[in-house]
């Protein structure tokens, strides 16, 4: 009898601890789908092993510079995941960072990253 052991695993979301448990501390994976996580307003990268990486702005910038701003251009791209230290509001925290492995798209095929400038007519004060 074969048992689907995925029913007994923890969350599919990758955590720093998951990478620290892997020999060498890195995971190579291919992006097979991208979904928007509406709860956290971030894209989730669905990887070929079924795991999910909640894609931080830093990782989005890295991938967009390499593959362009269209999510479709990130599909089937191989990436490496590793643990790195990030400065978050002056506090050093560990997180998962991506390193593109697949070759970058040529500049003429990349959709450029759009500036996320504030609406000049929005005079509300953010709190």
Question: Could you explain the architecture of this structure?
Answer:
The protein has 127 residues and is of the alpha+beta class. The chain has one domain (9-109): OB fold (Dihydrolipoamide Acetyltransferase, E2P), CATH 2.40.50. It is 13% helix and 33% strand. The chain contains two helices and five strands. It has helices at residues 16-21, 57-67, and strands at 26-37, 42-47, 52-54, 78-88, 91-100. Strands 3-2-1-4-5 form a five-stranded antiparallel β-sheet. Strand 1 (26-37) and strand 2 form a beta hairpin. It is globular and about 50 Å long.
List the helices and strands and how they pair.
Blueprint: H1 16-21, E1 26-37, E2 42-47, E3 52-54, H2 57-67, E4 78-88, E5 91-100
Antiparallel strand pairs: 1-2, 1-4, 2-3, 4-5
Helix content: 10-25%
Q: Could you give the distance between the termini?
A: 57 Å
Radius of gyration: 17 Å
CATH topology: OB fold (Dihydrolipoamide Acetyltransferase, E2P)
Name the helix and strand elements from N-terminus to C-terminus, one letter apiece.
Answer: HEEEHEE
- Proportion of beta-strand residues: 25-35%
Regions with little confidence, pLDDT below 50 for 5+ residues: none
Q: Could you give the count of β-strands?
A: 5
Largest β sheet strand count, sense and barrel closure: 5 strands, antiparallel
Total helices: the number is 2
Structural class: alpha+beta
């Amino acid at each position: 009898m074969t048992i689907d052991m995925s029913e007994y695993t923890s969350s599919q979301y990758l955590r720093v601890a998951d990478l620290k448990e892997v020999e060498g501390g890195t995971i190579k994976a291919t992006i097979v789908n991208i979904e928007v996580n509406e709860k956290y307003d971030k894209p989730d990268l669905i990887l070929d092993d079924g795991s999910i990486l909640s894609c931080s702005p830093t990782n989005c910038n890295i991938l967009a510079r390499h593959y362009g701003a269209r999510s479709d251009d990130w599909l089937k791209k191989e990436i490496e995941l590793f643990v790195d230290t990030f400065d978050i509001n002056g506090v050093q925290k560990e997180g998962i960072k991506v390193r593109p492995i697949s070759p970058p798209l040529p500049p003429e095929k990349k959709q450029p990253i759009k500036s996320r400038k504030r609406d000049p007519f929005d005079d509300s004060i953010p709190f």
